[in-house]
Predict the structure.
Amino acid sequence: MEFLMIILLLLAIIGLSNFINHFLPYIPVPLIQIALGVLLAALPLGIHMPMEPELFFILFIAPLLFYDGKNVSRHELWKLKKPILLLALGLVFLTVVVIGYLIHWLIPSIPISAAFALAAILSPTDVVAVGAISSRVKMPKTIMHILEGEGLMNDASGLVAFKFAVAATVTGVFSLAEASWSFILIALGGFLGGALLAYFIIRLKLLIRRLGMEDVTLHMLIQLLTPFIIFYIIEHFHLSGILSVVAAGIVHAIYRDREQSPNVQLQVVSKSTWTILIYILNGLVFVLLGLQIPSVSQEIIESPLFNNFEVITYILIITASLLALRFLWIFAGWWGGWLLKMERLPKPSMRYISITTISGVRGAVTLAGAFTIPFFLANGDVFPERSLIIFIAAGVILVTLVLASIFLPIIAKTEKGSTEELKEEMERKAILSSMDAAIRTMRELTTDKNREAAVSIIAHYNQIRNHFVNVTEEESARKKEMETETRLKALEVEIHYIEKLQTNEQIDRESLYLLEEHIHRMRVAVTNHLQYRGLFIWTIVKRGILNIASLFKSRKHSSLKARFEKKKKVARIKMEMAQEAITYLRESMTPENEGINVLIIGEYNDMIMKFKLARKGADSSRYIREQRELRDKAFQAERDEIQSLYETGEVSMDIMRKIRRQINIREAYWMEENSVQSH
């Protein structure tokens, strides 16, 4: 029961970290999760989660790298194979030698072989941490592909070098020729073995399907077990389990792309399941890392054998040296031509080189590997400075994370620019992205039952989306202003129509009040975002109160009939108001405002259609209800996409608020259609 409570608490912390990041998007989620892990370990709750490296690798690293292998661009990996291999292999081994000698020089109590072991475990970059940090920054795509490929490959090279260095420390024996041959065997064996096992698993799934077993649950279970099984089998033969799951992910991606008759339901379930699983595993990796830091630090801080200031200085010097060596290697390679020959690569600049350098974040693989260091040597002596090595590894992880969090957004900021033209382009792309998110959500939710309603909504979104495609930034801004003015003028036409009815005494006071309230809501939606949201919430609350109160009132048939007639009358007048607005929009249409006027006319026509459908029985009511439910989810998808773009730094707060106001305007018109069913 205690273990279950700890797991639930860790999951709650993952949720809390994303909640905090929602309000503090400039702080990366991994740092928040590490901080919460440290806080949890510091609380007097008696929580202790010892790091089991073998379990950690198979439980966390295997599925994470399998998922990355499935989703990484294979074309870009092959196209950029030369720079990726030079970073994943060349830089790793250079780091082992250079940083190893530096560590031994700084801390003579660490033997040269143990220093090589520490340098080796510090050499791999963490693909999970890099992805989390870079998600907030608009990085050049080519650099991002290089970082992803490096992160997938250098874990294996770093861990193999680490194992040989540890073995040399424990046994006192080392052979460069043997180590080189073993590395080639372990790496190639792991990669080819993982690809072969993945092929057999895919053939097994095809056989199951041919037997008529299309059970999504069974196929999903096999898919989830794949990385764990492959990692365990390959590691059992002392080959690279890390490269095996990367290869397995790539093979599964190739099969997915070539599949002739994909199971759509399985794809949807697979995407949803893996999204949740990766979300949880990513969070657990950093929370567990945070949980280890107090226990790792305590032994060093409390020990009289170590000077705390000196140890922190060691961490800073080693981190600076790692980044300097990475910078020089990339600088020499870039200007030396190993990147210039590739197509689509940006010209070498200090900013691009700095981005690639700062992105060399160390993560969970480094700490988990450090914990695999044995306590004793072959002769029975204690492994030299084991606690100090683990502490330095944890310190380098934290420093690289913090440095990347601070400096990466600053260095990459100029990629977005600060001019008005680029801001307008940013806004246009964000709007298109939100539209695409809504359309994507509608397609995922489409069933045979709600297909008609979903198609209507998708068509409407496509109409709006086309309004923002292939226009300049200035035109986009000008059209937004023109749209707001046009909507307000159309509302004035509706107001004049109500005033005419009032002058001719063709409308009663209650209907007049309801229609004036409708006009007020629409005007506020166009002009005032905050007031509209408050008014929207109050309308929902008021309707709920009235519905509850109506339950306690005695209802007579004549009263119900009068209320129904009142609804019909108000709906009829709203249709007439919409027709007046449409007439005005058609008469005032020019080549310049044609797109905007057609868009608004379409919204009015849609509203009129719903008013007509509401008077035709159960089928129409079901259609309206289905469309209302889908629209709510479409609006939410738009808001989620804009919030995500804001949290990742793709848009500013001003742009986020501006786009949300545009969403509220469209929502207001659609709300009026729904109000026919609610009044």
About this structure: The first helix runs from residue 2 to 23. The two ends are 52 Å apart (CA to CA). The chain has 25 helices and no strands.
